[in-house]
Amino acid sequence: MLNPQSPLPLYHQLADILTEQIRSGVYSPGNAVPSETAIAKQYGIGRPTVRQAMDNLVRKGLLERKRGSGTFVRQKEHEVDLFTLAGTSQAFLTKGIKYVSTLVENISVQNILHDETNPFDSQPAFFFSRLTRVETHPILLEDFYLHPKLFFGLDQMDLENRSLSEIVSGHYFFQPESARQTFRLSTLPDTKAGLLDLKITDPILMVERTLHFPGVDKAIFSRLYCRTDHFVFSQTIRLF
C-alpha cells in the first residue's frame, strides 16, 4: 500500500507497485491495466498522481497507451538484425519470426527523376515496392531500385514472400562486396504513411542502402521505412 508519510512521492510509490505487479505477472504483456479512475479509487489518491505514475512507466517502456483502448503492458520487443547484407527476409527468418510480404507496387522499369540521393537519378531502373507485416502489423515498407541490364528478366519473377538477396545470388550469381547505408528520421507522404498505419506527422526510421557488386558499383539501391514500435532493429558489426 501507499505510505503518505514516506519521503518517496506517492506517484513514485505507485509506479514501484505497478512495476512489481507487471514483473510478477499480475498484468501480463499485451493485457490492459486498470484505468486511472479505477487505480485512483483503489489507492485513495487523485487521478493526477496515477497519471504521473503511469507516465513514468510509459517512459520506461513498461506500459503503452493505445488511443481509444486504454493502457497496456508493453510486449517484449524482438530484436532483428535488419541491416545485414543477407537481406530483410533473412533477418526475420533468422529470428524465427513469421512474416508476410506483399507487393504494393509491381516491378517495372521507370525513369527515376528528381531523386538526388538515389544513384539511379536521371536513369532507368527496375522499381518495385514491398510491404512486410508481422502478425497483421505493418512493420516495414521497402522501395527497391535495380540495374535493369544487370538484372534482366527480374520483372518476370514472383517477388512476393521471396528473398531478393536469394534471387540475386541464386539466379544471377552475384554477391555484394560492399554497401553503404544511411539512417535518418523522416516522415512519409500520405500514401506511404497509410500503408504503415501511420499519420503523415509520425516520425519513422528511413534507411537508404546502396549495394556494390564486383565490377558494378551501385547496382541495387533501396529505401527502408521502418516502424520501431514493435521491433528493435539492430546491426551486427564484425571487426576483423
Question: How would you describe this structure to a colleague?
Answer:
With 240 residues, this protein is of the alpha+beta class. The protein folds into two domains: 10-73, Winged helix-like DNA-binding domain superfamily/Winged helix DNA-binding domain (Arc Repressor Mutant, subunit A, Orthogonal Bundle); 78-233, Chorismate lyase-like (Chorismate lyase, 3-Layer(aba) Sandwich). It is built from six helices and ten strands. The protein is elongated, with a radius of gyration of 23 Å. The protein starts with 9 loop residues before the first helix and ends in a 7-residue tail after the last strand. The mean pLDDT is 89.
What would you say the CATH architecture of the largest domain is?
3-Layer(aba) Sandwich
Strand order of the largest sheet: 4-5-6-9-8-7
- Secondary-structure element order, as H and E? HHHEEEHEEEHEHEEE
SS field, number of helical segments: 6
CATH top level of the largest domain is Alpha Beta
Distance, first to last CA: 55 Å
What key attributes describe this structure?
Chorismate lyase; 240 residues; Arc Repressor Mutant, subunit A; 2 domains; alpha+beta; 6 helices
SSE layout and pairing:
Blueprint: H1 10-24, H2 36-43, H3 47-59, E1 63-66, E2 70-73, E3 78-80, H4 88-94, E4 100-111, E5 124-134, E6 137-146, H5 164-170, E7 178-186, H6 190-195, E8 204-213, E9 216-226, E10 231-233
Parallel strand pairs: 3-10
Antiparallel strand pairs: 1-2, 4-5, 5-6, 6-9, 7-8, 8-9
Helix pairs in contact: 1-3, 2-3
